[in-house]
Amino acid sequence: MHKIAIYNNKGGVGKSTIAVHLADALRRIDLKILLVDLDSQNDCSLFLGLNEEPQNTFFNLIDYRYPADLTECITEIRENLDLLTNKNYELIEKDLHRATRIDNFLDKALKDAEDVYDYVIIDCSPSRSILNSAILFYVDSIIVPTQLEIASIRGFSDIYNYLNELEISTDKIKLVVPNMFDGRTKEAQDNLEELKSIFDENILTEPINRRTKITEASKMGETIFEYDTDTQLEQFYSLVERVVKLG
Q1: Cβ partners under 8 Å of residue 234, min gap 6
Q2: pLDDT tens for each residue of 35-55
Q3: Which of 40, 82, 118, 176 is a Cys-bridge partner for 31, taking CB atoms 3.0 to 4.6 Å apart?
Q4: pTM to 2 decimals?
Q5: Which Gene3D superfamilies match (predicted)?
């Protein structure tokens, strides 16, 4: 089972969109996926059309008083794709502050996923937090979506500093995904070249273009694969190929 965090400490870069589309694409090649929505905004649930909040969520899974089983907390949202939502984000953080160790916290919480899923994909909040720290300890790979604007590019130093402070190898950053690329603007083109000067081709993926259809699909609770099969999807498929090669 390969464990992936979709993380950036800057909001608005399309983390949840990448997480949802990556999960949906992987399940379409007959892989079993657990998508864990640990962004405080719960956008994965919205983007996949989950209209009713499940009775049990991630909080129930880690509740030290009455812990629920993983099977009681997941929602089968698509064939081969299960969703683990969250609520009571502040209480999750509070419980983590009680934990003796955070470096193996999620190994214990998600131990029952190990023999069931091929991939666990975690959508993170855009922040430094104790929950994000636990996630970054847990995962095998970190995928960083970024907008092609100078503030996002300069923010990469904060991500690397965060990992160094946690004494987590920065080699966990496996892919950087330029997202919402508008090739018509010189700023986007220049910033893409800047990224290419920072990251080699083994880390930097092809940019994913800004498309109105993707936004429309998310509002409808669908992925672009479901909403508009005429939209060119090569960029997402290219990302999936890169992820599969990670292991």
Answers
A1: none
A2: 999 998 888 988 998 888 888
A3: 118
A4: 0.93
A5: P-loop containing nucleotide triphosphate hydrolases
